[in-house]
Design brief:
Elements: H1 27-53, E1 66-74, E2 78-87, E3 90-98, E4 110-121, E5 124-134, E6 142-150, E7 153-161, E8 169-177
Antiparallel strand pairs: 1-2, 1-8, 2-3, 3-4, 4-5, 5-6, 6-7, 7-8
C-alpha cells in the first residue's frame, strides 16, 4: 500500500488527484496538479457543450409533416388544406380539400412532392419545397407548387395545367402550418 504524503501547505482538496510523495520542494508538484485539474475541467466543459448542442429528437422539427392550409393568388384564386407527411426528402399528401370551388379538383387525386432541408437553426427550419397535385376526377389536371419553407410558412409560385376548361393559371402562394 502506498501512502500519500501531503505537506501542510497543500490543501486537502488536491489529495485525491495529486501525489506529492517523493518530490523535493513540492512547488512544481502543486503547479502540475493545478494544470491537470484545469485540463480536466476544460475537457468536461467541452463535453457538456457538445452534449447540449447535439442529439435529441423532435417529431416535426426538421420536416413539413402536419396539416397545412394554402392560399393561391394570381390568374385564379384558390384555397385548400391538406395533411403532409415527409419522410426524408419525400413528401406525400392526404385529405386534400379545396375551400374555393374549382372544376379542376372535384374528388380524389394524388399529392406527391419533395422537401430539401437546408437548415434547422434553433428550431427554425428552412429549405426548398415542391408539391404536385394531380386530379382524380376530372382527370388530367395538375397543380405544381414550388417554394421555400421558412419555419411554419411556405411561400412560392404555382402553376396549374389541365385538360378541363378553366384549369390553367399561375401565381404565388402562401401556405401555413395549422
Amino acid at each position: 500500500m502506498r501512502l500519500i504524503h501531503r505537506p501542510t501547505s497543500v490543501p486537502a482538496l488536491f489529495e485525491p488527484w495529486c501525489d506529492f510523495s517523493g518530490r523535493p520542494g513540492f512547488e512544481g508538484g502543486v503547479q502540475e496538479c493545478l494544470m491537470k485539474q484545469f485540463g480536466m475541467a476544460i475537457v468536461l466543459a467541452v463535453g457538456l457543450v457538445l452534449v447540449a448542442c447535439g442529439g435529441g429528437t423532435s417529431s416535426n422539427a426538421d420536416n413539413v409533416t402536419g396539416n397545412w392550409t394554402a392560399t393561391l393568388t394570381g390568374t385564379q384564386d384558390l384555397t385548400f388544406s391538406t395533411s403532409l407527411q415527409s419522410n426524408g426528402s419525400t413528401v406525400t399528401g392526404t385529405n386534400l380539400s379545396f375551400s374555393t370551388s374549382t372544376p379542376c379538383f372535384t374528388s380524389g387525386g394524388t399529392q406527391t412532392g419533395s422537401f430539401i432541408l437546408s437548415g434547422n437553426f434553433t428550431g427554425n427550419i428552412t429549405g426548398a419545397f415542391q408539391l404536385t397535385i394531380t386530379s382524380g376526377t376530372p382527370s388530367g389536371n395538375t397543380l405544381v407548387l414550388q417554394g421555400t419553407v421558412n419555419n411554419n410558412t411556405i411561400t412560392g409560385t404555382w402553376k396549374l395545367t389541365g385538360s378541363t376548361e378553366g384549369c390553367t393559371g399561375n401565381g404565388t402562394f402562401t401556405s401555413t402550418r395549422m
